[in-house]
Input
Amino acid sequence: MRIVRGFATTATAGILVAAGLCAGARWHMLKMSGRKDLTGVKSCQTCHGRPETLEELPWAKPRPHHASPGGLAVSPDGKRLYVALDDTDEVAEVDTGTRLVVRRSKVPGGPTGLALDPAGERLYVTCRSGDRVAALETATLKEVATAPVGTAPVGIAWIPSQGSGRLVVANSVSDDVTVLSATPLASLGHLTGGREPYAVAASPDGSKAMVVSRMAGLTRGDEVPAAEVTVVDPAAIRVVSRERLESGHLSEGICAVPGRPWALSPILKVRNLVPITHAAQGWVVSAGVAVCDLSKGSVVELPLDETNAYFADPSGIAVEPSGKRAFIVSAGANVVTVVDLARLSRWLETAGEDARRGAIDDLQLSPEYVVARVPTGLNPRQVALSPDGRTLWVAERLQDSVLALDTGTLQPIGRVVLGDGGGNDPIRRGERVFARASTTFQGQFSCRSCHPDGHVDGLAYDFDLDGVGRNIVDNRNLQGLAGTEPFKWTGTNPSLRVQCGPRFAKVLTRSDPFGEKDLDDLDAFIFSLPPSRTPSSGPWTDAQKRGREIFFATRTTDGREIPYGLRCSTCHRPPLYTDRLPADVGTKGPADDTGLFDTPHLLGVAASAPFLHDGRAATLEEIWTVYNPKDQHGITNTMNKIQLNDLIEYLKRL
Amino acid sequence: MTKKPVTVLACAAAALVLAGPLKARSGRPAAELPFPLIERFEHFGPEQGLPAWKVHCVLADKGKVWVGTTKGLAVLEGKTFNVIGPGQGLSHSVVTALAVDPATGDLWVGTLRGLNRISAGKVETFTQTSSGLPNNVVYSVAVGKDAVWVATAAGVGRRDARTGSWSLFDSTNTLMHEPWAYAVTLSPEKLYVGVWAGGIVEQDLARGTWKEYRDPDGEMELDLAPDDGPISDITSWATWEDGILWQASYSGVARYDGTRWKSYLEKKSPLVSNFVNFIAAKGRVAWICTDRGLTVTDGTSWATYKGAEGGGGTVEITRPGTPPERRRTATAMSNDFVLGASITENEVWLATSHGLTRGILARRIDQATAARKTGTQGASR
Output
C-alpha cells in the first residue's frame, strides 16, 4: 500500500506545487476521478485537508431544533394524544377534540417511543440518546421515575404480566431487548435481539412482546439478508421464538392483529446485488408488509407497491381494534396505505406455497388487499389509532405536525401543529430531500431507504455501469461524514455536491438530478449528522487504553520499527481518523478494478459492520485475522490475540 | 434440525435392586446416604436419534436435554431428538462444552472450532478470527452474572454480556503456568480456572487479582503429601458448587472448601479410578465421571456405578465406618467411560464414550442441598 500511496502522494504534491495548482491539479483530478467537469475544488485542502479539531465540523456546532413528532400514544378514553418530540427533548400532550397542544413536558435524552399503561395513568418514554426509560404521571405530565436500559432505546410496549405489568424496550444500538417492571420502574433483564431492534408491540393474545429489528442481519456472499421478529415472554424474561423476515429490511413498525395470530411488520426488500441502474426497470427496492403467523411460525411478505407506483419506506403501522384494516405509512411517499385484512387473509388461504413465497416480487398483487391510499404531510413515520378506531393519528415528522384522519371517510379532519416546520432551516430542508422518494424513478426509494438515520443498512451494492457483479461496494456510513472528503470507496468525488449530483441520477436514481438548492440543503443535512453511537461508553477501560497505545505505536510488538506508511495513525489520522487519501491495503478482489480505496474515517466505526470496501469483513477482527495476510493493512500479524482485542476495544471507543 | 423419534431401549424390568430401605451387613438399618442412588439406567444412541455414539457433554435444563456429540448438538424434547450441526449454523460438529445463561435461557455451546450462542433457535458463532475468542478449541464454558467465560487451548476468554467486549487471560497476564485451560467454574465471588499443567488459578472477580493453587509435591503420578493442595498440576476439570471446589485430574480428585484441601485417590478411597474426566456437583455432592465408571460422594459416603460382565452392572456403596456393600443392578450405564454428567432433582444424565445414559434416581435430591450460587457451570467433555 505504502509504495503506491507514497509515490502517488509525493508525485502529486510535487506537481501541484510546481504547477501552482493549475495543470497539475487538473491532471490529478482527472487521474483520480476520470472526470473533467469537477467544480468547487479550490485547493488540495478541498479533498485532502483536515480539520485541526472536531469542533470545526458542522455536526459539532449548534443547530436548530424542531418539534419533530416521533412516537404517539392515545389515552384509553381517546381524549389525549401524547407525542414524543425527540429533537426538543419534550413530550407534548394534545387535546384530541381541539387538536391543540395543552401541555409540554421536558424529558431529557431524546424522547422517542411511548407506551401507556391500561389505565392511562403512566406514560412510559424511551429516551434514545439518554439510554433510559422515563415514567411520566399523566395527571401532571411530570417525570416520576427513570430506569437505565440498553443503548439507544426506541420502541416500547406495555405488556400485561405479573403484578403491575411489564415493559419491553427495543435497544437499537446495543442490539438487545430490555424487560422492565412497570411499578417500580426497574430493569429485570436483557435479551439478545436482532440487528437494531426498533419497534415493539404486544402479541395478539397480549401475553408476549414482538420486537422487530430494523436492519437485516449480516450476511456473507450471496446469502439472503433477513430481519427478525423477536418474540419475548416478559414474564419469564425469555425469547420464545425468532421469526425470520427473509430479505426483509428497514422494518420500523410492528402490530398485532386482533382475532388473528398475526404480527404485521412493514419491510423493504432490497435487491442489492442487482445493478442499481436497474431502478429504471423498477423492482430494485420494494415496499411490503410481512405477515408473521405466530401460530405456525410462518412468514409471508406481500408488496405494498404497484407496477408503476411505489410507496417507499413503509414505517409505522396500526390495526383497527376490529382487526379489519391495517394502516401503514410510507415515509418516503407521504402516503397512508389502507389494507383490508379480510381480503389479505382470503388471498393467503387460496394462494399456493409458491405464490406465497414469491408474493413480494409480484407488483400486480397489492390491489388484492390494498383498498385505499391517503396522502399525508411530509415524512409520515408513526401512527396511532384512537381506542374506538375512528381516528388515525399520523406523525408528519418533517413538517412538525400530526395529521388526524377519519378512518370512516379516510379524509383528514385536522392537524396538530407542533412547530413551524423548519422550512427556514437548510438542515431540515436537506432532511426532507433525503427522505423523499419522488427523486427516484417512480419513487422507488429515498436516500433514507439505504441510509436509515444517515447510517448504513449493512448491505453491499452493485453500483456502477460496469457489468453485473463488478466492483461491489459496501454501503458507507453518512454519519460523521463532514470533513472526510473525498467520497465513494474509490475516493473520486471531492464533495457531496459531486457525489449526489448528475452522476448520481445516472447510476442510481434514474430520474432527474437534484436541483442546486436541494444539493445545498442535502449537504447541510448530511454534514449535520454526528458520528454513529456505539455501545461503548463510560470511563476508558484498561483494554481501550492499551489499544490506543497500539494504534499510535511506532514499533511492532516484537520491537521493530513500523514504517511510517504502515502505522495505523498515518492513514487513520486523528481527529477524524482518516487522511482522506486512497490506499491499497491488499483487499483488491477478482471483481475489483482497483485496489486503491478511500481511507474511511473511524468515528463510530464499530456501529457500521460489515467492513472493508466490499463488506467482506463481518467483524472488526476479520479485517486483520482474515484479510491482512501480508501486513498491508498495518503490521498486525505480530500481535497476539490480547493485543488485537485491545486494538479493537480502542476502535469501538472512537 | 433433523428429527427422529426416541424409543427408549433400556430396562424393561427395571429390577429395582435398591428398592426399600437398605440394610447394613450387621442387620441394623443403614444410615441414609446423603445422595439418592440411581435405581435404573436408560440408554440413547443413534437408533434413538442421537447423531453419534460418542457423547462429550450433556446438560439438562427445564425439560430439555442438550447433548454434545462428535457429530453435532442434539436436544431431547419429550421423546424426540433434534440435531443442530454445521448445516444449522453451528461452528463445528464436535461439541465439547455446554452452559445455559440463567438470566436469558440462551445456550452457550463450545466446539472444536469456536463458541456458539443458541437463542430461541438462532445460532450465533464466535470464532478466534471473527471475534475476541482466545482460541477455537473450547473446552469449557461458564456463565456468570454479567459475562460468559470460556476455557480454550490458548487461554481464558471473558465476553461481557452487555458490551460484547472480550477480555483474555493467559500466561502473559495472569499467574497461569500455561495458556492451555481445561475448565472454568464460578463462585459468586471468584473464577476458578483449571489449567492443564498449572493446577488451578483463581481470580477475585471484584478486585481482578489472581491466586494460584499448585500441587505442592509437584508429582504427576503420586500424592506424596496428602491433603496438601491440588492433587496434581494437571487439571482435567474443576467445578465449584455450594462452597466446595472440586478438582479433577488424571491422578485423582481434590476437594477444597476454601480452607482445607482433601485428596481422593483410587487406592486410598472408594474412588473408582484416578483418571477423572469430569465432575458435576449438586449441593455438596460430587458426581465423578471417570474412565471406569461413575463415583458419587460427598467426601464421606460413596457410591460407584460400573458395568458388569454378562450384562447389568454393579453399585458399590461405602458408608463411613462400614465395609463396602456391592450389589448387582439389572441395568448399567451405556459405557463406563463417562465424559460428562448433568444432575436434576430426579435424574442424572451421563455422557459416555458410547451413548447417552439417563439414570433415574430412587428419590428426589433434597432441594435444601441444591446449589446456592449465581452462575451456572458448564457441562463439558
User: Anything to note?
Assistant: Confidence is low (pLDDT under 50) at residues 1-27, 370-375 of chain B.
